Amino acid sequence: MLITYETFSLFAIFSIFVPMAGAIILMMVLAFEKQIDSLSFEKQQVVLENTLQESKYMQLNQQIHPHFLFNTINLMLGLARLNRIETLIKALETLSLFLKFKYQIKEQLIPLKKEWEYTRYYLKIQELRFHNRLTITEDVDEEALKHFVPPYLLQTIVENSFKHGLEKKPGPLSLTIKAESHEDHITLYVEDNGLGIGDHSFEDMMTKGQGLSNVKTRLDLLFQKANLDIYKNEQNGATVKITLPKVEFQQGEQA
Q: Which among 89, 142, 212, 213 is least surrounded, fewest beta carbons within 10 Å?
């Protein structure tokens, strides 16, 4: 059987281009698989990074300052020596509620209402410590209580005021806590008439103990637009101001 020139030409073209097309398709498949592998690896990296961030965040959450526990135990020993049993029982009950809350909370965000309740346990213990020397002023907007904040945010700032500003100051002590609701954010203020910040810069204050740096790190991990500032107030004490975006919770989510 004779093969015509046209048939031979078509056969030759087919023999050349089919393997080329196959090679091109194979390269495309390999490239596609590589892209899928790359995306899968990137996803794994994101999951791993998020897990590490969450782990770091929760570790920061669970820090309890031994300083506070030491002072509270000393308070209880003093009450026991003075035979002030009723006050001692009240202090023990409040500390129990404080620690119960501390180890129950696992969420990254909780309602400010719950954070404020927790902070009050801490303040009750400090009122027992300083008795008539301490005046606490509360100015909390009910609207602000509807929004989420990192747990222990307010309590850590309040504790910082006592540790670095109020505890070593003689005479009357004052602490003011404010929570304001604005259009798209809430603002928290903790003001004291303590020893103040002196000539320390913001960076200095971030390294002075772990309280403020802990709060700032957690805010940075959770929010793109959150701010922490500390400055001298009119009483020559310190004011810590925290601004963070509104995150509202629905009725029934967390009471």
A: 142
State mean pLDDT over 193-208.
Answer: 77
Contact assessment for residue 157 and residue 240, using Cβ atoms and an 8 Å cutoff: yes
Which contacts (CB < 8 Å, 24+ apart) does range 57-62 have?
Answer: 57/108, 57/218, 57/221, 57/222, 58/106, 58/108, 60/214, 60/217, 60/218, 61/105, 61/150, 61/151, 61/152, 61/218, 62/102, 62/103
Q: At what angle do helices 66-81 and 112-130 cross, to 10 degrees?
A: 40
Chain segment 8-59, per-residue pLDDT in tens: 455 555 566 556 666 677 677 666 666 665 555 455 554 444 444 555 555 5
Averaged pLDDT for residues 61-78: 72
Structure tokens that stand for 18 in this block: 């089919």
Instruction: Give residue for tokens 């904040």.
Output: 149
